[in-house]
Each structure stands twice: as C-alpha cells, then as structure tokens.
Amino acid sequence: VIIETPWHNRPLALMRHDELELVVETYHRRYSDLIADSRVMMATLFMNHGERAGTSLIHPHAQIIATSIVPRHIRHMEREALQYFDEWGRCVHCDILEHEIKCGERIVAENAHFVSFVPYAAEVPFELWIYPRRHTPDFGLLRDEEKGGLADILRDGLARLYHRLGDPDFNFVVNTSVPPKTGTKRYHWHLQIRPRLTTVAGFEIGSGIHVNPSVPESDAAFLRDGQSAPGDVA
Amino acid sequence: VIIETPWHNRPLALMRHDELELVVETYHRRYSDLIADSRVMMATLFMNHGERAGTSLIHPHAQIIATSIVPRHIRHMEREALQYFDEWGRCVHCDILEHEIKCGERIVAENAHFVSFVPYAAEVPFELWIYPRRHTPDFGLLRDEEKGGLADILRDGLARLYHRLGDPDFNFVVNTSVPPKTGTKRYHWHLQIRPRLTTVAGFEIGSGIHVNPSVPESDAAFLRDGQSAPGDVA
C-alpha cells in the first residue's frame, strides 16, 4: 500500500505538481523493487477512489499487488500486441496513439512525454487513458526525465474528472508487461482511469461486452473544454 | 425484457413453483425465438436484481440481448472446452459436474435434472452455478421434462440467497453456446448467479484476477444448512 500524502482527505486531483512528482517517483520505486524479486512475474499498480470503486477509506492510497503468475487477461493483451507486430511490424499501441493524435477529437491533454485521451471504444463513460509517447513495454522503464510529465498528466486528468464531474469514484490501473520476465517487448504500458458512473451488470458479466451510454468524442470534449461536442446524445 | 410477474415487488425467490415454471418456459421460448433469427449469433439471458447489480427497478424482470457477434469472452470459454475435449475426449463441464457431485462439499441442491453448487474457484462470495446433468451445449435444447427441474433449482438457489443473506443484490446469467451457429458442440450451458456483496476494484480490472474473501466450501455449507463449515475463516 502506498499512502500518497499525510493529509487525510486531499485526493491526488488537488495535490501540487511537486507532490504528485514524489508520488510517481514512489510508484516507480516500489514497482521496480517488487518486479526485481525472482518470485514475482507481474505487479499490478492501481488505485481505488470512493465506495463504488471498492474502497471505503478516504485517505488517498494506491496499491501494488505482486503475483507469481501472469494473468490470462494480461497474456491476452500481450498476445494481441505481438500478433499485430508480426502482421504490421509496428507496436499496436504506438499506432493507436498516433491515430488518436492525428484524429484529435478524443484527446484530452498532451505534454512532452505523455498524452491522455478517451479511447475510441471506451468501456465506461469518461474513461481516460494515459500513454507514454515513447514506446515503452514496461512501466519499470520510465525515465527520470519522464516522471514530471507523468505526474503532470495524471494530475491534469484526475483534476478534470474531479472538477467537471464532481469528484466521481474511480479506479486507475497501470497496464504493463514485464519484458525481462514475460518476454513480450511489443507491449506499451499505459495508465487507465475508469470512473465508476455506471454499474457492470448481467449483460457485461455474461458477454464481456460493455454497454457505454456516452459518446467518447463528447466525453473528451467535456473533459477538455467543459462543453459537450455537437451531436452529443447524453 | 421479460417481466416475470404482475406483482410489483415479489422477487423470483418468493414465487410459487408453478409460477417459476412459467417463467422458465418464457425464458426458453423467447431465447429460442431470438436465436432462430438469421442475424443473431448469440443471445445473452440475464437478470439484474438490486441497485448494486445495476438496476433501480424493483419489479422483477429479466433481459435477453441478442447480438450479431459471438463475444471474445464466450469464444474463450468455447475454445477452452474444445481443447479439453480434444485432449481428454470428454466435456470439461460434464467432468466438473461429476467431480463436484463426487466431492460433495460444494453442492447446494440437486434434483433429477439439475445440480447447483458453489464453484471450486468462485470469483465472488456465494456464487452459485446451476448445471443440467445432461450434456447440453445450448440452452435452446432444454427439454420439456427438464423445465420443472430448472424452475425448482433456480427458485431453491434464489430462496436460499434471499433468506440466508437477507435478499442480496445479484446478477444471474445463462452461459450458453449456440451450436447450430457457432459450431461448438463441446460446450455445456449453465446458469451463474453472482451475489453483489463485494465490489470489483482496481486489481480485478487490471489483472482479471478476482479476490474472493470467502471459502467456497463454507459458502456452500451456509447456503445448504444455514451453518458455516468447520474451518470457516469468515
């Protein structure tokens, strides 16, 4: 468990940039330390904020769970990325990012090292993905000069959700491969923020298909400008 | 949408057997009608009960969503079942069922045609699976003489949850293959009841691994006898 601050009720969204930079530094150090252990195949870094996101603790805290297996869920994403690479000779995530930047309408924020956007097929309303611009399979490969950028864009995304949506419950999770252990260099780590505004129900459980009542382009416009895009059906 | 009863606030758990039999008959007719449509590849039958399960309507209702695709989630389960069949010459679900009956400690109820049990690796507390004893890939192949048994065991399971756990929110979903369309005869349909007593959080989202704080054998004993099993840690 990583406790981000001595302040009991100040969420990440309201922290100063220099505080967030220390948080990111801590995430990275703890993650790197855990995956260095020979028994660990995978470490999942995540945060649960609010009761609907599965926590009843107000005090901001993230968690890293180290497992001695690579879950099927991660293997699936690695395999798909590898297959795309075998077919096209490129990282699928680099291509997604390039497409999003070119297209622009789902972008929420950018800085020198990171981009945040609402994914094309967002599973939940106001889902937000943060990608490093540089092809980086493993979160552990984050460079010192990139840490400020990650702190910056994470704070930006969380602050937008906080102010525009009234502090919604959310989870964030770092999706990463661990190439020295799992061998898949084709992955590209990213951070996924999922507000808990809707409830996963029977259809999602039975089919794995998520019903998202919102439009990603409108969600992005609202997070970016505070206004809905033309054609918003919400 | 299938509305089970004209009574606004009588859940399935409190219905009479003959009423449940008509409900099962209706599920089967509507399902069969939908998958007969050439545009439909898959039909997902499910119920959401209570706010934590994704519904705010009290009046009992189930839903069937027909899709023109077979979701990856279902394909995965079909593929695993087929691979098991290729390796062992048997249906994996028939083997699971046989193992559960032989083992006995996770069984909750049995009748001539159906068995309900808490699965060995239950993802959530008090998860309950209902299996037809007869190898049946597709819910559409349910026979007339089996409908009473399904009504009986479904009512039994829901009543146990209702009385022993104080009417918890739950989802149920019918997991089925559609062999005339999808071609996988090795599947074995079953109904999955998932009480919503815990919340899926960041670790589950990130890894696909579910943290279940309860012990399946104790959950089964509690549902069966109203008592926890020896060694219960709950």
List the topology elements.
2 copies of one chain form a homodimer.
Chain A: E1 2-3, H1 17-35, E2 42-49, E3 61-67, H2 72-88, H3 92-103, E4 107-110, E5 114-117, E6 128-132, H4 144-165, E7 170-175, H5 179-182, E8 190-195, H6 202-207, H7 216-225
Antiparallel strand pairs in A: 1-3, 2-3, 2-7, 4-5, 5-6, 6-8, 7-8
Helix pairs in contact in A: 1-4
Describe the structure.
The structure is a homodimer of 234-residue chains. Chain A is built from 7 helices and 8 strands, in the order E-H-E-E-H-H-E-E-E-H-E-H-E-H-H. In chain A, 38% of the residues lie in helices and 18% in strands. By secondary structure, chain A is an alpha+beta fold. Chain A has an 8-stranded antiparallel sheet, with helices on both faces. In chain A, helix 1 crosses helix 4 (144-165). Chains A and B meet through strand 2, strand 3, helix 2, strand 7 and helix 6 of A and strand 2, strand 3, helix 2, strand 7 and helix 6 of B.
Largest sheet of chain A: 8 strands, antiparallel
Structural class of chain A: alpha+beta
Strand content of chain A: 15-25%
What's the helical proportion of residues of chain A? 25-40%
The number of helices of chain A is 7
Order of helices and strands of chain A: EHEEHHEEEHEHEHH
Name the biggest interface: A-B, 36 and 36 residues
Distance between the termini of chain A: 37 Å
* Radius of gyration of chain A from CA coordinates: 17 Å
DSSP summary, beta strand count of chain A: 8
Q: What assembly state would you assign to the polypeptide chains in this entry? A: homodimer
